[in-house]
Amino acid sequence: MSDPQSPHEEILEDGTLDGRDALGDQLAGLWWTFLLRGIFAGALGIAALFWPTGSISLLLRLVGLLLIVDGGLTLLGFGRRGLIGGVGVGALLIGLVLLLWPEGVARLTFFLLGAWVLIIGVGSLMAWRQMSDQHPDAPSVRNSGVIALLIGLVLIFWPGSGMVALGWAIAFGALAFSAVMFWLTARFKRAHDRVAMRVVDR
């Protein structure tokens, strides 16, 4: 049985709770940064829904601008130290690459995806060749290999078809991100109001 007067466990819990409260108060004070993220991401998502696929490079530049804003807001709120600061620096660097070289990034992305899918297709067909014809999964392995080969070839030699899918992915991804940011804004705004009330009560 532990001594009820021993403060060891209570001190540890209080320290942990104090650290969590400090982080929560810091996030609450930065609620407006989540609002800005939500507004920018929502605007990007709406633009991507109706954007002509020929302007995918401009759309990727907008994604880069969003990442730069997100990284800047993260560094503004938390500084460059720690894991969160590293996330902010990473967002800034990726945003700059997309802003300055969107066409190259898109083509490289589709080429790498196509090569990866081709490798999967070749591996599936090799596995199918080694399987018995009576094996119940042999047709599925063969068909998946053929489909993977076709998709890989399309992504490598006809990247324009992938651009359409990329535009839709950007649109729905940005809108989902925007919804999460607005939800966090509401949560942290209420938390900020509670912190302000605690300060007034003191």
Describe the structure.
By secondary structure, the protein is mainly alpha-helical. It is built from seven helices and no strands. The protein has helices at residues 8-29, 31-49, 56-78, 82-100, 102-130, 138-157, 159-201. The relative contact order is 0.14.
SSE order and pairing:
Layout: H1 8-29, H2 31-49, H3 56-78, H4 82-100, H5 102-130, H6 138-157, H7 159-201
| Low-pLDDT stretches | 1-17
Percent of residues in helices: over 70%
Q: How do the SSEs run, as a string of H and E?
A: HHHHHHH
- Percentage of residues in DSSP E strands: under 5%
Our count of helices gives 7
Shape: elongated
Brief synopsis:
The chain is mainly α and 202 residues long. Helix content is 87%, strand content 0%. The radius of gyration is 25 Å and the shape is elongated.
Question: Which properties best describe this structure?
Answer:
202 residues; mainly alpha; disordered N terminus
